[in-house]
Amino acid sequence: MQRVSSACCLCDWTDEIEALSSIYGEEWCVIDEAARIFCIKICNGLEKPKLTACLQIILPHEYPSTSPPIYQINAAWLRGSERAKLANSLEDLYVENMGESILYLWVEKVREFLVERSQMDQPEKVNMTAEEDVEDDTQVPDIRTFSDSAEESHLYAERVNDEELPPIKHGESITDRRSTFQPHLAPVVSPRQVKMILEKLYENKKIASATHNIYAYRIYCEDKHSFLQDCEDDGETAAGGRLLHLLQILDVRNVMVVVSRWYGGILLGPDRFKHINNCARNILVEEGYAASTVRRPSEESRFQLLLRPSNL
């Protein structure tokens, strides 16, 4: 009987995936068919305000008969109570349809949520954990002059209009136990550019499908001799704060780093934080924001403390 049940589960989910692929076309993406990892980019269908979310799904072997899908909702604008409300609605749908294929209902529930959200006020601005908050981002000054070795690559940020999209660099990925981490970097001089960079990255289907897109940025306000800075975990608890801490230790300025993680189905424990920070530091060094030379003893000890597994 168990073999028959397993065969039914296999038939059910493969038929469901085939149907979803036909319905949603390019919006539907197969991440790892063998591991049953899929994602779909969902939008509200409007130009203004245009809201998108990525629903990533892992199907257990017992789905749909006895186990629900494992899911992650990726959306830079989705936070706090709104994220909890959407998650609760998906879980309620599963309970109401337990034992049945649920993915189509979930996708349309997310789309319905996006439409309702777009009818409300504009998505809230990114919350800032600045050393000193700056209320008017149009008054953020140009960045200071960098060292000669990095000057050429950073001159762009000194003359850029904050209405323009800064250039985005993509670094080398790190893979460990089927999880992949890839860093992205861009110069920033205002929170408005931070939002533009996130929107641009989420236009990339692969990046949008990441389980987590963790980011942190620091903007130096020269006239106030302080930093405007913020970070986001995107579901990877404490990862954003650790990434921001790394930027502070390296004393980088006017830069944003995003690290995308694609979960491979195996828990990494504290190693995931090590990979996130190593990715970030590598691209900062490659782009000239941080030195690759040996740090001072006090700085080295702080950096090792940040990465040490026993402290994660």
UniProtKB/TrEMBL annotation:
PROSITE patterns reported in the protein's UniProt record: RWD (PS50908), UPF0029 (PS00910)
Locations listed in the record: Cytoplasm
InterPro entries (alphabetical): Impact (IPR023582), Impact_N (IPR001498), Impact_N_sf (IPR036956), Ribosomal_Su5_D2-typ_SF (IPR020568), RWD_dom (IPR006575), UBQ-conjugating_enzyme/RWD (IPR016135), UPF0029_Impact_CS (IPR020569)
UniProt keywords, alphabetically: Cytoplasm, Repressor, Stress response, Translation regulation
Name of the molecule in the record: Impact RWD domain protein
Oligomer status and interactors: Interacts with GCN1; prevents the interaction of GCN1 with EIF2AK4/GCN2 and inhibits EIF2AK4/GCN2 kinase activity. Interaction with RPL39; this interaction occurs in a GCN1-independent manner. Associates with ribosomes; this interaction occurs in a GCN1-independent manner. Associates with actin; this interaction occurs in a GCN1-independent manner.
Entry's family note: Belongs to the IMPACT family.
Cytoplasm among keywords: yes
Pfam families named among the record's database cross-references: Impact_N, RWD
